Amino acid sequence: MKKHTRMPGRCALALAIGLALSAPAAYGAGLGRITVQSALGQPLRAEVEVTAVSREEAASLAVKLASAAAFRQANLDYNPALAGLRVSLGQRTDTGYVVRLSSPNPVSEPYLDLLLELTSSSGRVLREYTILLDPPALRTAPEVVAPAAGRSTAAAAPSAGRTPPRRWPRCPAG
Fold first, then answer.
1. Residue 145 near residue 82 (C-beta atoms within 8 A)
2. Is 22 left (phi over 0), alpha (psi -120 to 50) or beta?
3. What is the C-alpha separation between 120 and 111, in angstroms, rounded?
4. CB 34: neighbour CB atoms within 10 A?
5. Do the Cβ atoms of 34 and 44 come closer than 8 Å?
6. Cα dihedral sign, 55-57-62-67
7. What span, in angstroms and rounded, lies between the C-alpha atoms of 136 and 130?
């Protein structure tokens, strides 16, 4: 008959791993996806979701455009169109927050690199966004082509020599 020996090192390791996996993770507030509501040649209007805000840190939330030094450190060009950018924090629901971005002047650049800084009692988060601005003509509903007289009205397809307008992709959320 084999005698079982105690292995205190293994028991302690198993207990430590179990406690680490069962303990809730301490995550702080973060910046989520951006939604651009304006087009090229218009004043910038956009919103950024604020994620994972606890009740304790809600009162200490602050957001701003990162400094020019932070842009340099992130290897981003600080676009002069960002100089007058207004950044404000708003509450969408009881627990949801949003960062509202607006500029007083029209933006003539087709894309902008943006670096936002969110601070709270749990720390500081820097998040980079690239905003792509579509020309206003591309933001409208697609053109409806009427069928020619004497043809079937089952499907009106665009003419073969005509190419549809290019749609610029949106930035991924994460």
1. no
2. alpha
3. 29
4. 20
5. no
6. negative
7. 19
User: pLDDT (tens digit, 9 = 90+) per residue, 100-137?
Assistant: 999 999 999 999 999 999 999 889 999 999 999 988 77
- No. of H helices and E strands in the chain? 3, 7
Distance CA 69, CA 48 (A): 22
Q: Does domain 26-133 have CATH number 3.30.1230.20?
A: no
CB 115 within 8 A of CB 66: yes
Bridging pattern class, strands 123-132 and 97-106: unpaired
Count of beta carbons in the 10 Å neighbourhood of residue 91: 13
- Pairing of β 62-65 and β 97-106: unpaired
Claim: this prediction has a pTM higher than 0.70: no
Beta bridge partners of 114: 129
One-letter amino acid of 150? G
